[in-house]
Design goal:
Blueprint: E1 6-11, H1 16-25, E2 31-37, H2 40-51, E3 68-73, H3 80-87, E4 91-94, H4 108-115, E5 119-122, H5 127-132, H6 137-143, E6 146-149, H7 153-165, E7 169-180, H8 189-197, E8 202-207, E9 210-215, E10 220-223, E11 236-240, H9 244-252, E12 258-263, H10 268-282, H11 293-302, E13 309-320, E14 325-335, H12 342-355, E15 363-366, H13 373-380, E16 385-393, H14 400-405, H15 414-419, E17 425-435, H16 439-448, E18 454-466, E19 469-476, E20 479-487, E21 496-500, E22 503-512, E23 515-525, E24 528-530, E25 541-545, E26 548-557, E27 561-572
Parallel strand pairs: 1-2, 1-4, 2-3, 4-5, 5-6, 6-15, 7-12
Antiparallel strand pairs: 7-13, 8-9, 10-11, 11-12, 13-14, 14-16, 17-18, 17-27, 18-19, 19-20, 20-21, 21-22, 22-23, 23-24, 23-25, 25-26, 26-27
Helix pairs in contact: 1-12, 7-12, 8-11, 12-13
Length: 573
């Protein structure tokens, strides 16, 4: 670092990940960003775009408005010593890849950096590359440089989440992690090539405590990504991928029994096709999926559908400090285009630490455990990203809403927590009721037993525990109707399932300030799944107001219009 300017060379600087890293750091005036790749033309085009004013923002690249930006050529197969000596970076970040395809001396860039006393970090997602980086530890320490490999979602962020959950355990038996990008994210070609390289191939993991071989993009695990504070993603099937965590986890937990890392591809039809193709590789009918990487990338872009949301999970299973069976889930959901920034947040955090004079210890090692979950959570605040931890004690009975909400339960206002505290209880109050006037709305209201319209109607609700269910008996004046609620299972995991007569509605519990919103995520009639866009909806929530529990329930749909709307307050008897 000379003259107060820190020089950062990003190999693959105009690619999917390197470009996002440059955008995150582009406003930092203490940086000299070298956007590097084999094509100077592409690097120039990227720098021009990054410097262009957007939405009234200032121009990047000047002394007072942002980083110094420079497009440069860099060829990892060229004279590395000459290129690095000429560019004089303080830190090299390799954001290119795919690291699985590096042949010969795959560490030649790393070795050149160490030889010249240049610090190095990368976004490697290859288990072999990341685990093998420690072989350069002595050389890096001798030169006083640091080398951090895998400073990405897997393993840097996954291990940060793992370390945050580990103190709850006396013994960890299983670890699983997975990433579910939004279907609308334009996945980079190198990422697709990396995934295609091990489709149908053996992937080293742990099974029943022994080293075993899984099947890439064939073995699967179903997970519902559900941070405590937001509506969960739909249940996803994750296919096994070769990630650094699989090589690093056995060294972290003695006696670990099983490991899994996976990826979900949307839409599900495309994922099923990918799994079928991986089976063809497994049985020898296809040599590899790598030649089809470009076609797979195009298909993922062409057939994108569904909500523009992505996610990630890390799950630990084992025994807690009191010997009880415990499953801990850390989940993350990113909205819109924010998800693709997650893999580069670790490097952004590293660079900002270096600018503050906080330097990692010298030596070469995987980046697992280098950053804490609190570090990442601070970086999440610049995006629409929600994350959190759920603890599930299998032998401990908990109230229904507490099981579903996880750690978000602690944030509920006291009046809401008291209503949902479990057991048999009775609450009473007053309500205002509106009814829809349409024929279909009246038929549905009559079928379920909703009350007639009225003002200041006496209301009483009896909550009764029935095994894993709660039966809610609501009385509005002389009219009574009943429903039952339970925690969803399988595809409905972390959702509330409520049954009114022949209707079964899946609801996400979403805390929002002093309110708890109930958001419809699916429904069935007589067990038959129905389209979500026709589902009963409306603004439904609970809240604490003046120390009292208040409710507001709307039920209606595109076909029916308003069926019923009732709002009011309750106090526990």
């Amino acid at each position: 670092m000379s003259g107060g300017t820190f020089s950062l060379l990003i190999i693959g600087g105009y690619g999917a990940f390197g470009g996002r890293l440059a955008r995150l750091l582009g406003e930092e005036p203490r940086l000299r960003l070298l956007i590097a790749g084999r094509s100077l033309e592409k690097a120039d085009d990227f720098v021009f775009d990054l410097r262009s004013p957007k939405g009234g923002a200032g121009r990047l690249g000047s002394n007072d408005l942002g980083a110094w930006l420079q497009a440069v050529t860099f060829d990892r197969d060229g004279d590395l010593r000459e290129q690095l000596t000429r560019l004089r970076p303080d830190l090299v970040v390799d954001a290119s890849g795919p690291f699985q395809s590096f042949t010969g001396d795959g560490y030649k860039v790393v070795r050149a950096c160490i030889e010249l006393g240049i610090d190095y970090a990368d976004l490697a997602d290859s288990s072999g590359f990341v685990a093998g980086i420690s072989g350069l530890d002595a050389e890096a320490k001798a030169k006083g440089t640091f080398v951090l490999s895998g400073l990405s979602s897997l393993p840097a962020l996954s291990f940060a989440a793992l370390e945050a959950m580990a103190p709850h355990f006396s013994r960890v038996d299983s670890v699983a992690a997975g990433i579910a990008p939004s279907a609308h994210v334009r996945i980079g070609l190198n990422v697709v090539r990396a995934i295609a390289s091990y489709a149908g191939r053996p992937v080293a993991l742990l099974h029943e405590g022994q080293p075993a071989k899984g099947r890439g993009l064939i073995d699967e695990m179903r997970v519902t990504i559900a941070p405590p504070d937001v509506a969960p993603l739909a249940s996803r099937t994750f296919l096994l991928v070769d990630a650094p965590d699989l090589a690093l986890l056995p060294g972290r937990f003695a006696g670990l029994q099983s490991t899994f890392t996976g990826v979900d591809t949307e839409p599900q039809a495309l994922q099923r096709l990918l799994r079928f193709a991986a089976r063809l590789v497994e049985v020898g009918l296809l040599p590899s999926l790598t030649p089809f990487a470009r076609a797979l990338q195009a298909a993922s872009h062409r057939f994108a559908s569904g909500a523009h949301r992505g996610g990630m999970f890390v799950r630990l299973g084992g025994l807690d400090r009191d010997g009880r069976r415990l499953t801990a889930d850390w989940s993350l959901i990113a909205e819109g285009d924010d998800g693709p920034f997650i893999p580069v947040l670790g490097v952004e955090l590293l660079v900002r630490r270096l600018l503050e004079g906080r330097r990692p210890e010298s030596g070469a090692r995987p980046a697992a455990g280098e950053l804490s979950l609190a570090d990442f959570e601070a970086a999440f605040r610049q995006f629409s990203i929600a994350s959190g931890i759920r603890l599930d004690y299998q032998e401990e009975a908990q109230p229904l809403y507490r099981r579903i909400l996880g750690e978000a339960w602690e944030k509920l206002p006291p009046a809401l927590a008291a209503i949902h505290a479990g057991g048999t209880r009775l609450a009473s109050g007053r309500a205002r009721i509106e009814r829809g006037s349409g024929l279909l709305a009246r038929l549905i209201a009559g079928l379920i037993g909703f009350p007639a319209a009225g003002e200041d109607v006496p209301v009483a609700v009896r909550f009764a525990a029935d095994g894993e269910r709660e039966i809610w008996t609501r009385s509005f004046g002389s009219k009574t109707f009943r429903s039952w609620q339970a925690e969803g299972t399988g595809r409905e995991r972390h959702l509330l399932a409520e049954v009114f007569g022949p209707f079964r509605v899946r609801l996400a519990l979403v805390p929002e300030g002093q309110k708890l919103r109930l958001v419809v995520r699916g429904w069935r009639f007589c067990g038959i799944p129905l389209p979500l866009f026709l589902a009963p909806g409306g603004d439904t929530y609970e809240e604490e107001r003046d120390g009292r529990f208040h409710f507001h329930v709307e039920i209606g749909g595109r076909l029916t219009g308003l069926v019923v709307r009732y709002s009011g307050w309750l106090v526990l008897e």
